[in-house]
Amino acid sequence: MVSQFFIHISSHIHGGFMISQSSPDGDVHKPQHVEIKAIILYITTFFQSTGASLIWPITTLYMHNVLHQSMTVSGVVVMGLSVTMMFGNWLGGRLFDRWSPYKAMTLSVGVALAILIMLTFWHSWPVFALFMLLIGFADGLIYTLVNAYATTIQSIDTRKVFNFQYLFMNVGVVAGTAIVGFLFDYGVKYVFGSAAIMYTVFFILVIKYFNIKGLAKQSAQAAARAAKSTFKTPTIIYAILGLAFAFYMSYMLWETVIATHMTDLGMTTKDYSFLWTLNGIIIIFGQGLLNRIIDRLPLRLTVLGGSTLFALSFLVLIQAKTYPMFIVSFVILTIGEIFASPQIPAWVDKLSDPTAKGHAQGLLTMFVSLGRAIGPLYGGLLIDGGSYKLLFASVFILMMFFVALTLILNIRHLKK
């Protein structure tokens, strides 16, 4: 299985720029589409994800334990980071569609790198908070732009592109979270310095490979067509955006309040940390298996079926009192994540205006960031005013509402 997985990866290396083909009489046809090489997209995703994963696990911990800020202040900064990321998501889509994809990408990664270098040397309060808000904005731009670049790839099935991109992103998460656990004890400057190194490699790759000849012109032509376009956005897209919001709002509970819940029940932080290691392992091998059959499965089945599994994991959490029950819940959630999460952007891309791909991916990443921003606040409010059981039941109901709504609107869309 592992050897076949790497053979499948190698086949993606040949996906890339569309090359002019010669007709039998020797005439050269102009390329009909320009795109980034898939393997370059995956590698840059890995380095960006590794760099980002060095930072987010220690943000709250560093503010509270080292900078001696309250949990409320720390929570506000984390929420602010998500809000600035949303603005970056929105702007990234507009820059891709209406300006230069390459210039927008270079500027965004360059800004993020500059901030990380400054954070390496200046990370006291409140400079740290300001820099985190700025890095959120820059990363928001980057996430949308990377997704928009992914939609340019036509030589490979879009679903497989997003699936492999998601795989490399999670390999980066596993690498980053493993490295940060080792570096943090030696000093936060080593954490930010390592993140800066990852973004330096990312920046070099962007400069060398992201200046796709003809892509800026293609985006300008698409923007001109978009101004005259009569394309009406299908209502189902808004339901998918709502599903993405609920998905990531619920997911944030695992990154925040569930850690506290587990320690309250007598489990250790090592127990909690192992769940994320398990999550990464399942995703890496699960995505490899899924990519062999993904093109045989309808998008609605992978997204809605995966989202339903994801929601069901919270029903297990309602009754979870022991560590094995938390493992069962997280495994169910991870399997649902494997099916749904990487296929949501592919479904949005399929349904969106072909002249405004960046805008569509920008909207999606905005709703993802909004879910991440609201999740910790929502969790805290329901725990303070109710209980963990009420919280888990409510996110199950919210998830299933959007699953049902998306299913109904998809049936109507197919009838049209």
TrEMBL record:
Q: Does the keyword Isomerase apply?
A: no
Q: What is its subcellular localisation?
A: Cell membrane
Q: Name one Pfam family in it.
A: MFS_1
Q: Which domain of life is it from?
A: Bacteria
Q: Which residues form the Major facilitator superfamily (MFS) profile domain?
A: 37-416
The alphabetized UniProt keywords are:
Cell membrane, Membrane, Transmembrane, Transmembrane helix, Transport
List the transmembrane segments: 39-59, 71-92, 104-122, 128-150, 162-184, 190-210, 235-254, 274-294, 301-320, 326-348, 360-378, 390-411
Q: How does it sit in the membrane?
A: Multi-pass membrane protein
Report what the protein is called: MFS transporter
Source organism (scientific name): Weissella thailandensis
